[in-house]
Amino acid sequence: MTTFPIEKIRADFPILAEKIRGKDLVYLDNAASCQKPNAVIDAISDLYRHDYANIHRGVHTLSVRATDKFEGARTKVKDFINAASEKEIIFVRGATEAVNLVAQSYGRANIRAGDEILITAMEHHSNIVPWQLLCEQTGAVLKVAPINLKGELIYDEFEALLSDKTRLVAVAHMSNALGTINPVGRIIAAAHARNIPVLLDGAQAIPHMKVDVRALDCDFYVFSGHKLYGPSGIGVLYGKQALLEAMPPYQGGGDMIRKVTFEKSEYNKLPYKFEAGTPSIADVVGLGAAIDYLNAIGMDSIAAYEAELLDYATEQARKIKGLRIIGEAEHKGAILSFVLDNIHPHDIGTMLDSLGIAIRAGHHCAMPVMDFYGVPATARASFAMYNTRAEIDVLMQGIESLIKVFG
User: Fold this and answer.
1) 16 CB neighbour count, 10 Å cutoff
2) Looking at the whole model, is its pTM more than 0.85?
3) CA-CA-CA-CA torsion for 215, 307, 298, 187, nearest 10 degrees?
4) Phi, psi (5° rounding) for residue 326?
5) Residue of 34, 135, 218, 365 with catalytic role
6) Structural contact between residues 258 and 208, judged by C-beta atoms closer than 8 angstroms
7) What's CA 361's distance to the chain center, in Å?
8) Residue 330: which residues within 8 A CB-CB, separation 6 or more?
9) What are the Cα distances from residue 42, in Å, to 13, 45, 283?
10) Are 239 and 250 in contact (CB under 8 A)?
């Protein structure tokens, strides 16, 4: 294993000391939501204890302090993904809202009947349904690039689906159900060669790898704070400034306007044009604290450590008779989806919980992926930087024990 300060990191997450049904907690549901370090919990608590007030336009001290912390977090996000400007960072409730914002703002303004939107067969529902809604509203057509049995995008077929009708490509950077990391550099280059903008759903990718939106040259990048060790209820839409400038507002209300009369309203400048109403102030500050925490460890170190964890888990899982891994792409993030012969994934999840092991069982908001593999659901163990080989051993022992129980 690489040198990685695992014990120090684990000590920063108080919930990891919890007992579940009398057993040490083994938390392996990180693809659904990561746990929070003290740095995030304290940042939120400190804001409410010492600096909280509504932000922007306030002239009193608390409002100025809260605004400084809020806008400071925006700069941290900008630097974290290497965006060119704070104007390109829009705070939303999560990745889902960010995709919906692009669909309803960019999409309604630029996509017409007969146009095509291209996604892949491994998308989360959040990167399917908003485009279906847009197609219903505009008469556009949703195209889906297929995957192979390893869970990899069939790139040639993806490229063949790019056409003069394609107006937007929207793909997962990393699959939440399979762990597959898509070749997003090739995807973006191929789309841009045809002047097609690309949205990347980075909800799963961003806690596991360094993301540089300018190096990627993506047009939109979306992610959620709660998967990045930050609070739930906050997320980010990155968009190239020129695109955001040209897009109409997504919602109307306070803070997104410059002037309002009963005849007409003038909209605020970026990024505020897309942030109507009082935002989730403390959660934005918490997200900034999460980014500080991750930067102190280093995303490259985290990626290397998690890659070793996934390799070890995959190696151990392959030794278990009757276990089938769902998704064995060459390039994967720290997700292990699997099924067991004659045991429903929900029973796997329930039995493992009795041993203190938290995994996710279900369709993972990726029903088309389940249909592709001919399974109703999978069991999914997903790893984070605070997990250990010893926890993987506990998981595998738990799986072996429930196989014995079910005969």
Assistant:
1) 17
2) yes
3) 10
4) -105, 105
5) 365
6) no
7) 18
8) 150, 152
9) 12, 5, 12
10) no
Q: Tell me the sheet residues that pair with 172.
A: 201
365 a catalytic residue: yes
For 131, the enclosing helix (H) or strand (E) is helix 129-138
The DSSP bridge pattern shows strands 166-172 and 116-120 to be: parallel
CB 337, CB 179: distance < 8 Å: yes
Question: Could you read off the pLDDT of 333-380 as tens digits, one per residue?
Answer: 999 999 999 999 999 999 999 999 999 999 999 999 999 999 999 999
How far is the C-alpha of 25 from the C-alpha of 336, rounded, in Å?
A: 19
Q: Provide the residue count of the chain.
A: 407
| Residue 315 neighbours by CB distance under 10 Å | 10
Query: Which long-range contacts (C-beta less than 8 Å, at least 24 apart) are formed by 388-392?
Result: 388/6, 388/10, 388/309, 389/1, 389/309, 389/312, 391/26, 391/28, 392/309, 392/312, 392/313, 392/316
Place of tokens 């605070």: 386
Decide if 357 contacts 398 (C-beta within 8 A): yes
CA torsion angle 5 8 9 13 (round to 10): 170
Task: Tell me how far CA of residue 126 lies from CA of 112, 376, 382, in angstroms.
Answer: 21, 19, 19
CA pair distance 40, 126, nearest whole angstrom: 26
User: What are the DSSP E strand ranges found in 129-228?
Assistant: 141-145, 166-172, 198-201, 220-224
Q: Scanning the structure block, which residue is given the tokens 């889902």?
A: 96
**What distance in Å separates the CA atoms of residue 61 and residue 40, rounded to the nearest whole number?**
23
pLDDT tens digits for range 244-277? 999 999 999 999 999 999 999 999 999 999 999 9
Tokens encoding 339? 């099924």
Q: What's the one-letter identity of residue 258?
A: R
